[in-house]
Amino acid sequence: MRLGVITSMVTVALTGSLFGQGRVIELRSARQLNVQTIAGEEVRDFVGNVHFVQPGEDGLIQVWCDRAKQFVNRGLIELTGNVKIIQDSVTLRGSQGTYFNRTRKAFMRAGVTLERDDMTLTAFEGDYDAEAHRAEFRGNVIVVDSMSTTRCDSLIYFEDGDRSVAIGRVSVVNPRDGITVFGDSLLHFGNINYTIVPKNPRMVQIDSTAAGDVDTLVVTGMVMEAFRDTSQRYTVRDSVLVAGKDLSARSGFAVYRPAEGLTILKHDPVVWYGINQITGDSIAVRLDNGKLSTVFVSGKAMAVSKADSLLPERFNQLTGRELTMFFGSEEIERIESIRNAISLYYLFDEMLANGVNRSSGDKIIVDFIGGQVDEITVIGGVEGVYQPEDVIVNRERTLNLDGFQWHEDRPKRRETSIVFDKPE
Predict the structure, then answer these.
(1) pLDDT-derived band of residue 16, with 50, 70 and 90 as boundaries?
(2) How confident is the model at residue 421 (pLDDT cuts 50, 70, 90)?
(3) How confident is the model at residue 20 (pLDDT cuts 50, 70, 90)?
(4) If exposure means fewest CB atoms within 10 Å of the residue's CB, which of 137, 289, 378, 418 is most exposed?
(5) For the whole model, what pTM was predicted?
(6) Residues 37, 39, 41, 44: what is their CA dihedral angle, to the nearest 10 degrees?
(7) How far is C-alpha 123 from the geometric centre of its chain's CA atoms?
(8) How far is CA 78 from the centre of its chain?
(9) Residue 392: what are its φ and ψ, rounded to 5°?
(10) Residue by residue, what is the 3-state secondary structure of the chain?
(11) CB 84 within 8 A of CB 108
(12) b/e per residue 45-77 (b: at least 16 CB within 10 A)
């Protein structure tokens, strides 16, 4: 039964037990008010330019919409048309929703947008708890800020600490660095610029060169973290695998700084590039414009490459306390080894095997042309031994330098997943 119609601007204070626990809602504007009783419950229907506010200990909530239907006994208000809810720096927008005035909670359906500072979130539906300063969103959740775009199935957002938890098919795209991070879930702490992907993380970086070539680098591990403090950096822990077009690696820990093109690998790292394998206590890989520039190895440094595909037991080897590899646009150009440097290189005469040369010194420089050894220079405390072919045949394993190991489990990229070389 219609009790009354107000067609002018309305300003009314609604208080008392109808709203539970002394909750106050103040109607600031509406063009029309219809009041009726449905199934014994008073229903107030506000139409046109509806605006009401509700104060609380944690701040004022303001609500706008085209139409609001208030169910007094149930303590809820149905909102439709251009819905907007604001508390402090948080703004919720949608086409329809429900506001629960006793608990100061809102449920938005049929599409919702949350805006806060430079962050915008969209989803199919969402709940906002004004008193807990907590929001939960479901269905095609997309979060865009100044640095990245995040997608997931659902997300819980806490204003306190600017924290969020993303769950289900998570992806984070950083267009500035060409990096996308995937995972089952993600935790982000905006107040300290820290993000962690605690399970099944996968980072994919796509580099495009001026010549139009595209190289995709894939990194996986058990846990991945991103830091945005003094510099952007990513860390990956436990069973770290790296696979690119030419570059592959594995280690127990990795740090990647995209602005510097620098990756640091620790805990039994192994790096492969082309036919070369590099090991040491710590390996720093630097890329310039997406191309491998240098590899620096410290502590038990060793570079190994197969001497000839037809002689599988023969490996060229170079060791030292420190080792640096320099690369040109396509291939290796030079290796420098210092401090207890030792080299073992197999010789060939017109493609025929011709023995092996072992040298040691304070510093060894190996120059390459076309990816093949051109010249070896030994500096300081030089010692050398040449063994002819007839002496070394079938004895190659006894000649290997201390610490030699050829790793067969090289990670390789397939699409955006990682597969492995099979042992020969």
Answers:
(1) very low
(2) low
(3) very low
(4) 289
(5) 0.82
(6) -40
(7) 21
(8) 40
(9) -100, -10
(10) CCCEEECCCCCEEECCHHHCCCCCEEEEECCEEEEEEECCEEEEEEEEEEEEEECCCCCCEEEEEEEEEEECCCCEEEEEEEEEEEECCEEEEEEEEEEECCCCEEEEEEEEEEEECCEEEEECEEEEECCCCEEEEEEEEEEECCCCEEEEEEEEEECHHHEEEEEEEEEEEECCCCEEEEEEEEEEEHHHCEEEECCCCEEEEEEECCCCCEEEEEEECCEEEEEECCCEEEEEEEEEEEECCCEEEEEEEEEEECCCCEEEEECCCEEEECCEEEECCEEEEEEECCEEEEEEEEEEEEEEEECCCCCCCCEEEEEEEEEEEEECCCCEEEEEEEEEEEEEEEEEECCEEEEEEEEEEEEEEEEEECCEEEEEEEECCCEEEEECHHHHCCCHHHHCCCCCCCCCCCEEEECCEEEECCCC
(11) no
(12) bbbebbbbebeeeeeebebbbbbbbbebeebbb
- The closest of 370, 308, 306, 368 to 336, measured between CA atoms, is 368
CA quadruple 272, 277, 282, 287: dihedral sign = negative
- Tokens representing residue 355 in the block: 């023995």
Tens digit of pLDDT for each residue in 266-293?
999 999 988 899 999 999 999 887 788 9
List, in order, residues 6 or more apart from 258 with CB less than 8 Å away. 177, 179, 205, 232, 233, 234
User: Which residue, chain included where needed, has tokens 């706008």?
Assistant: 64
% the chain with pLDDT above 90: 63
List, for residues 168-210, the tens digit of each pLDDT value. 999 999 888 889 999 999 999 988 889 999 999 999 988 765 4
**Mean pLDDT score of the chain:** 87
More confident residue, 323 or 15: 323
As given in the structure block, the two tokens for residue 23 are 């909750």
How many residues are listed for the chain in this entry?
424
User: Residue 59: CB partners within 8 Å, gap ≥ 6?
Assistant: 87, 88, 130
Burial of residue 292 (number of CB atoms within 10 Å: 0-12, 13-18, 19+): buried
Q: What is the pLDDT of residue 205?
A: 87
- The predicted structure's pLDDT at residue 420: 61
CB 2 within 8 A of CB 36: yes
How far apart are the C-alpha atoms of 108 and 322, rounded to whole Å? 60
Cβ–Cβ under 8 Å, residues 56 and 70: no
